[in-house]
Amino acid sequence: MTSLRIYAPATSANLSVGFDSLGVAISPVDGSLLGDVVQIESSSVPFELENVGAFARKLPKDLHKNIVYQAYVLFSERLKLRGGEIKHLRLTLEKNMPIGSGLGSSACSIVAALVALNQFHDNPFTEMELLAMMGELEGRISGSIHYDNVAPCYLGGLQMMTESQGNICQTLPFFDDWYWVLAYPGIKVSTSEARSILPKNYSRQDMIAQARHLGSFVHACHTQQAQLAVSMMKDFIAEPYRENLLPNFSAVRQGCKDLGAMAVGISGSGPTMFAIAPDLALAQKISAFLEKEYLQNSDGFIHICKVDNQGVRKIN
């Protein structure tokens, strides 16, 4: 193998009800790629890295702070422990995802890089071994290891983090007919900042409510009760504290609901927000509303998406 290109899709974590425990992979219905691409090819020197793409200018100038470089270093270390040898290679990161967007931007880069490296070296690591490395790298950025972006980005669909019996996550049945309207306003909210504003302690009442809603949501997924699922998509843990980081979020959320959105929430730690619609016509109305009321600058964008059940994949 001399060259390949790996695409890793965007994700929406938490889904309001599943703080740090749920994440879903998403792709635009128009066929465009909302995610990062890593190209890997043979090189005459030990290592090269080039950054290209719409948001490459936002990446750190220091190579050692680039998460794709860190993925290369971690993969190399683990491969040497297996008795393997890292090949001379060149990586090109197509950074199509805004940093600090709430769409799993760092996860896209991490997943695409590690899968490219693994395939380039004839797959020395298993799925769960790679996923563990992905979580470790994600933790370097957010301050704590969590898998709610890397797992769905890697595996596709809706993933629930279990971290039990040798499995990091489990795939949940979901609602493939839902339309997800994702609006990124064009501003940055760092994951570490969004985590730091959360309280250290919660009331018993809030914890019981969150547990009840999450349990009911998972039950609704398995029994395919769409209305029950959306009625349970409420957040008692993060959104009440994070919504002040987002521009006019409370009013915009109400506006989406007034139009008929089934559920509205913060994607990951924000500032992207999601609204779920039962059909394309309503999704387009919500999209037009969000474009007018939520986007802040020319970096902002809106995509109408559906669940991406493929996850990371090789592209031409």
From TrEMBL:
May I have one GO cellular component term?
Answer: cytoplasm
Q: Does the keyword Hydrolase apply?
A: no
The residues covered by the GHMP kinase C-terminal domain are 224-294
Protein residues bound to ATP:
P98, I99, G100, S101, G102, L103, G104, S105, S106, A107, C108
Give the metabolic or biological pathway.
Answer: Amino-acid biosynthesis; L-threonine biosynthesis; L-threonine from L-aspartate: step 4/5
Domain GHMP kinase N-terminal residues, every copy: 66-157
Catalytic reactions on record: L-homoserine + ATP = O-phospho-L-homoserine + ADP + H(+)
Q: What is its main location?
A: cytoplasm
Which keywords label this protein?
Amino-acid biosynthesis, ATP-binding, Cytoplasm, Kinase, Nucleotide-binding, Threonine biosynthesis, Transferase
Give GO MF terms, alphabetically: ATP binding; homoserine kinase activity
Where in or outside the cell it occurs: the entry states: Cytoplasm
The reply to whether RNA-binding figures as a keyword in the UniProt entry is no
The Swiss-Prot or TrEMBL record describes its family as follows:
Belongs to the GHMP kinase family. Homoserine kinase subfamily.
Q: What does this protein do?
A: Catalyzes the ATP-dependent phosphorylation of L-homoserine to L-homoserine phosphate.
Tell me what this protein is called: Homoserine kinase
